[in-house]
Amino acid sequence: MNFFDGEVLAFDKPYRATSFKVVYTVRNALTARMDGRKIKVGHAGTLDPLATGVLLICTGRATKRIEELQALDKEYEATLRLGATTASYDMEHPVDAEYPTAHITRELLEEALRSFVGEIQQVPPVYSACKVEGTHAYHLARRGADVRLRPRPVTIYGIELLSFEMPDVRLRIHCSKGTYIRALARDIGEALHSGAYLTALRRTRIGPYKAGDCLDPTTFADWLQGQEIEIPTITEARTTNDSK
Question: How far apart are CA 224 and CA 183, in angstroms?
Answer without folding.
Answer: 38
